[in-house]
Amino acid sequence: MTLKAAIVGTGAVAHLHAEALAADPRVDLVAVANRGARRREEFADRWAVPGRHETLDSLLDGEDLDLVILCTPPELHREQTLAACAAGVHVLCEKPPALSLTELDEMQAAADAAGIAFGMVFQQRTGTAAAHVRSLLDSGELGRPLLAQCQTLWLRQDDYYAVDWRGTWDGEGGGTTFGHGIHQMDLLAHLLGDWAEVDARLWRLAREIEMEDASTAIIRFDNGVVATAVSSVLSPRETSYLRIDTELATIEVEHLYGHDRGSWRVTPARGVDPERARTWELPEDDEPSGHIPLVRAFVDAVAAGQPLPDLLTHARRPLELVAAIYASATHGRSVTPEVLDADERFTTGLRAEVTDLRPGAAGPASSASGRE
Ligand SMILES: NC(=O)c1ccc[n+]([C@@H]2O[C@H](COP(=O)([O-])OP(=O)(O)OC[C@H]3O[C@@H](n4cnc5c(N)ncnc54)[C@H](O)[C@@H]3O)[C@@H](O)[C@H]2O)c1
Q1: Which atom of ligand 1 lies closest to the CA of 36?
Q2: pLDDT in tens, 64-100
Q3: Which residues fall within 8 angstroms of residue 96, CB to CB, at 6 or more apart?
Q4: Which of 15, 19, 34 most suits a substitution to test ligand 1, by most atoms within 8 Å of the C-beta?
Q5: How is domain 3-120 classified at the architecture level of CATH?
Q6: CATH architecture of 126-288
Q7: Whole-prediction pTM
Q8: Phi and psi at residue 69, in whole multiples of 5°?
Q9: How many helices (DSSP H) and strands (DSSP E) are in the chain?
Q10: Which residues line ligand 1 (CB under 6 A)?
């Protein structure tokens, strides 16, 4: 039986989903919904989609669907997920899945009650190389992981923030940490597990936006790893970089928006037996990270009626990390999961204190005094 899919929000990222659906013979893209007619028609023409709707309600009323992929702005993800749950349609939701932990918990509870699959897009977890590195770490083969670095150094200029929902707390829900850094921090946490403590600052160094354009954080993980994480939209040589030093090896991945075998490097420590190090080499039959393996994993689970794999779940963890960074920057102290859970300001939203260092801004002294 062919599954019937729809995409809501036919903007930039929707094309990656359409491409992934087109690559999968078990699923047909039968309909789209988009608020603006021009983008809707252009998208539907390009991907030969017959059903065309202005709203999600009209889509859910008018089509017989198995699954819907939400590619709308973040502020809509909650209400649209709840509507799909009520209609009994499985949901794959673009990142960030929700604007707060409370929203995410509500969405997950609605999906569980309706018995539908609720998958979330964090595509950096996918790809053969990431799976290989994760199994090396999990098996203990590389010794104890000790130290990590996580960098999302991207460049977003004024044109990027010209879209009406960007650059505001209401539209985007958070700054570059939430919108961009979350991907690489998600991969870090996918490899290292749960976090234990976060110490962070948020900075506004150049952009005319309400939120931070850079953040710096120290993250301690449950397994004892200490990581530094930097997110930025100010970096002309753009890179996404992760490095984990274990007792026996350094693992690195450097890429921009997606990685493959060539992006990863495993460097053995001096003295490691070369025969042993050879077993750590990345598999030859490489599949890059991206929306194709992620959508395939979602369709696999829906088609088989199986629970979603952890490639598509555990969205709470990256969202917790971001919320903890925002809470720490605001309160001026380190944040543990227990402290975060009790902090309603950062479980229900992310509006945080940002230190503004732009020329002519209030400056570090007065901004810093904004920290509680
Ligand atoms: N996983 C990734 O790598 C990745 C990359 C880019 C964007 N994203 C995420 O995908 C989402 C969309 O981002 P984008 O860059 O494609 O945005 P976009 O602005 O290009 O597209 C959003 C589309 O949603 C439509 N829309 C708005 N309100 C609607 C409504 N009520 N009903 C139906 N359609 C509506 C808009 O008309 C627009 O066409 C965001 O959550 C973003 O963070 C993820």
Answers
A1: 37
A2: 999 999 999 988 999 999 999 999 999 999 999 999 9
A3: 74, 77, 173, 174, 178, 179, 182, 319, 322
A4: 34
A5: 3-Layer(aba) Sandwich (3.40)
A6: 2-Layer Sandwich (3.30)
A7: 0.94
A8: -110, 120
A9: 15, 14
A10: 8-14, 33-36, 39, 55-56, 71-74, 76, 94-95, 121, 123, 163
